[in-house]
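Format notes (please read before filing issues)

Several people have asked whether sequences and structure tokens are stored in separate files. They are not. Every record keeps both together, in the order shown below: the sequence lines, then the token lines. Line labels are part of the format and must not be stripped during preprocessing.
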Amino acid sequence: MNHTDIARYRLLNQQIAMPIFTHPGEVVQWLGAMQAQDYLGALWAVGLRMAHATEQMIEQAVTEKTIVRTWPMRGTIHFVAPADVRWMLELLTPRVIQRSQGRLKQLGLDAAMITASAHVVANALQGGKQLTRNELYALLEAAQIATSNQRGLHILGQLAHQQLICFGARAGKQPTFTLLDEWVPHAKSLPLDEALARLAMRYFTGHGPATIQDLIWWSGLTTSAAKNAIALCAGQLAHERIGDQEYYWHQRMPSTLHDARGIHLLPPFDEFLVGYRDRSAALDPQYNTMVVPGSNGIFNPIIVLDGQVVGTWKRVLSQTGVILTFSPFSSGNAIDAQSLVAPAERYGNFLGKRATVQM
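Then the structure lines:
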């Protein structure tokens, strides 16, 4: 296996090149967790990994609780399978909470304030209620708990990390919050070793080939915990040293790269890039700032050709259509308007809109 092969195997293992699943919950569980801070982009991230999907189908899965949106790792919003919510939060959020203490102190949010906020929010949401962020902020303000200057956002994040709340269904275009215990009452805890092994298996199955450094980045585990996680499932993992790095993947990884070709339109923050610390297998470092302008952590939507990121794209919606504008990195790759018609039409079908290509 060489460096280029890594990116192509990831296309297959991430279900981008040859999707096999028919339900959004299967996709999310396969990947372990999928970054979902950009909600509409995350819907497409799930949909593109299915043979036939619509935006309405993925959003319906959120409403029906077969995928759950919350803050399980890195202090960032992800989609996870409902059965995985509890043990992932228990395993991964204590370090996030610890690292957030300095910022909470700056905002004047001590443990007593978070506890008081939890009481207000729990009372408001009890009985299956779903409230928007602004509705919760109003209740907190009424209880003399200020939410300005990002205090409200950090309060809700802490309550999610503490397993009190998660996202519910959208109210119009606004996200709502609900009680985790009521939204997914059957989510289970796991013993530490079982949780570590399951996390590593999910990651290397859905993201492999990848390194221990990639696992640490993606999950937020300590180095010692990540090493332990790999050791616990070593019998199910294959590995190979490529360059100066050891790469791991599930033993049942596809044996051929024949199907890892073609053009794919990936949303912002897609796991194909954001799921790894080292993204150079798919993205030439000279183009890093084209994908993450200003190195500010905001990822643009990307064009992927045969496993390589070769440009970015953006959309403009109208009532009936979607205009897709493409910006290839170089004129030397095999990207032209005609080659983008099929992937653009696929995205348009996902939205239920007619797609128009612009270069």
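For reference, the curators noted about this record: The first strand starts at residue 34 and ends at 35. DSSP finds 16 helices and 13 strands in the chain.
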